[in-house]
């Protein structure tokens, strides 16, 4: 810095004098006390430190020294010490102990002290009450200073750290300074007012009169701060907006701003405010933004600014970033106000040009803005579709993301084939972070606009292949559902999926799940046809080839348990799909049995259970197998809402809730739940219960009045749970056969479901136990004021002829629920008498409720203990 | 409104921080650390913009220094690039082809210049000449005080 530039006597060599004097000062003060390290030297020392530990040593030593000088109230070197402390603070070390010293510096009469003191205050002060009170007083003094730069420092500090209390205390001072004749002070005061209103909006009123005159200024600093302040006020309150529209310094505000803007773009070159050939872009942008607020929903105001916006849009030089900055702001204003349609087309075309710009920043801004306007002006944006699709290949990841979102917003019935083709290409190459969102969006777009079922299925398969394991689970459910419902395309689907399954699919679990489900259901058409003309069916596929693929899937450690469950069930189904011919025990049949039997000792409890259940179907209950494994009727499940795409595009992908309800609420939790339940009842862990529960347990099972009692007995014997009467039909989604949560007899429920569906709302009561003259009924009630609370009124009725004494009803639920049992009405049941008890179940997780019951009583035959599990609570009771 | 401005080196060392919103020290440090890591990890062919929490982050590299600003959703990110550029021009004029060392050793001057360009996170002066004039006048005020103080110390005043 050369002082001679600033009107000092050129002959006077300031620098050398300064140095001499500084040295003299150091010498003199050394006599009194040692001079502290200079800032420059400290920085050098710190930079010379080779390790972090070394740096810490230097800093700690200096901090200790600085603290001691603070304690000694050394005012000579305070400024230098604070400067050093600020450097140390920037390195990340604590420096709060300098806060009060900063205030002392501010209170000093020297400008040098104030300058560093205010800098320190801005850097070190947080919103702590006590220090703030002190600084408010300092600020108040300095705001009344006679030196403009002292006022400037105070205003700048207030602008940076104004707390609500400070804003209230100093608003009047700021308002006074806004009317100062000095432009340097006026502009800073205007921005201070802006910050004060930000913190305390109700202070706005008092600034209104002083604000009005700011727009009549010539000084650009005052003008831009004035526009900023008015913008804030207008955004803050509609009343103020109308106030400014009506009258502002004896001129209407819109024509006034239009005039200023016009002068800026028409005035010739002014070196002071020129930026690459554009006159004061900062001011232009601020004015354009204020015009946008003034023109919003106001036809007259919009009318008054149409011309100037068109002028700015066409006359701005666009070779540099600065020109595009203004165009960008102009486009935003045009889109927001009630502008003429021609102007809007012009604006979208500017964005179209932006998309072709070499500068990635401009491309990004264009996509972002198009995304904002696409729902207002779809047809105008559609014209730039190909350019937008090109942006899917951009090297910049944020541009690709925006392009993807915008592409999905542009998909409609007419362009779906083309758009999805491009998006599938994008999906194949996309980064993992995009795959989930992109695949879900393709699925939803296809759902919404697909031209036909065949195309829809093809698209879903392509998604499953391209996105692999990134596909969200809801896609599996809705693909299966679509195949199930579209009977004409099942041959195509099963052959296409077979071809996909032949390849290695460990990185595509969802695909494997869909494929095995389909082959299990429609395996007969896959092998034996008939094939329609358009189906590209596999030639001469044998049963053994299919089984080999299944074996690979089941053996591969890379496949998940869920996939293996799909596969195992599918394989079981295939045993009835394959044709036996004349051979009673064809080779494939033995092979399937063998594979399934091996799972009887699988380490995974889910797979083990399936293995045992299914192998029983090949042995004792072989006669039931064909009818149990019949083809599923077409499903009519609710699919994910297609209109979710809008939400996705706007950035709130709230899909997670939906997907979890369809499949997979987590494997481990369900297991721990059930074991917790077992513990509660003191029957030990699951495995020991299995072994100690003999097959002779079956007599205790209440046989329901359905034709499937054999099967129930069978599973009852295997399971330690004894399924009870299914007098209350429950609406299980058919897909829940696969659900890993079902540790108990859900298999039965699911299979029986097709025959026992009924109206789900009709379930106020259910019989949970009915044996030897004792009938227990649950009457369900939803609490009105707590949606999570289910109230169960238990009624135990003695329909026998002898009395029941010592009746005790106990219940347990998994840990995720809370059960509160009120005391029973009694323990004695006379013939045809009853006992009631109220159970309150809180179900925060909205999970399916299961309940274990233990009933003990003394009848004519002596004491009796019964156990049962209720897991067929109607789903309406859970929601 | 700009929420904060950070200057940091390619090595991730903070060189300047200006906060226009009140955050506790801990949060400031966390934000700084996260942003520095994120930005340094970005490739040069990426855009200068970053959607980060509820703010838009605009950054640009000049030689070994990154200039990084957080702005609000309504703010013009292209204009923020111009503000950064204006600040760099001012530093350049003041120091005479500025380099990272100038800012390290004269960090307080770098703050003073920023405070004459922005107040409360909004631009207060669009003329480079006016900003430099104000800085020069205040530097002069300091020099006068130094001379006066020194003369008084050695008994000449």
Automatic annotation (TrEMBL), chain A:
GO terms for biological process: intracellular protein transport; vesicle-mediated transport. Residues 761-874 form the GAE domain. It is a peripheral membrane protein. One of its GO terms (cellular component) is AP-1 adaptor complex. Gene3D superfamilies: 2.60.40.1230, Leucine-rich Repeat Variant (1.25.10.10). Keywords: Cytoplasmic vesicle, Golgi apparatus, Membrane, Protein transport, Transport. Its main location: membrane. Residues 656-675 are annotated as: Disordered. SMART domains: Alpha_adaptinC2 (SM00809). It is found in: Cytoplasmic vesicle membrane; Endomembrane system; Golgi apparatus. InterPro entries: Adaptor_Complx_Large_Subunit, AP1_complex_gsu, ARM-like, ARM-type_fold, Clathrin/coatomer_adapt-like_N, Clathrin_a/b/g-adaptin_app_Ig, Clathrin_app_Ig-like_sf, GAE_dom. Belongs to the adaptor complexes large subunit family. PANTHER family: ADAPTIN, ALPHA/GAMMA/EPSILON. This is AP-1 complex subunit gamma. The lineage of its organism: Eukaryota, Metazoa, Ecdysozoa, Arthropoda, Hexapoda. The gene is LOC105366179.
TrEMBL record, chain B:
It is a peripheral membrane protein. Adaptor protein complex 1 (AP-1) is a heterotetramer composed of two large adaptins (gamma-type subunit AP1G1 and beta-type subunit AP1B1), a medium adaptin (mu-type subunit AP1M1 or AP1M2) and a small adaptin (sigma-type subunit AP1S1 or AP1S2 or AP1S3). InterPro entries: AP1_sigma (IPR044733), AP_complex_ssu (IPR016635), AP_mu_sigma_su (IPR022775), Clathrin_sm-chain_CS (IPR000804), Longin-like_dom_sf (IPR011012). It is found in: Cytoplasmic vesicle membrane; Golgi apparatus; Membrane, Clathrin-coated pit. This is AP complex subunit sigma. It holds the Pfam family Clat_adaptor_s. Its main location: membrane.
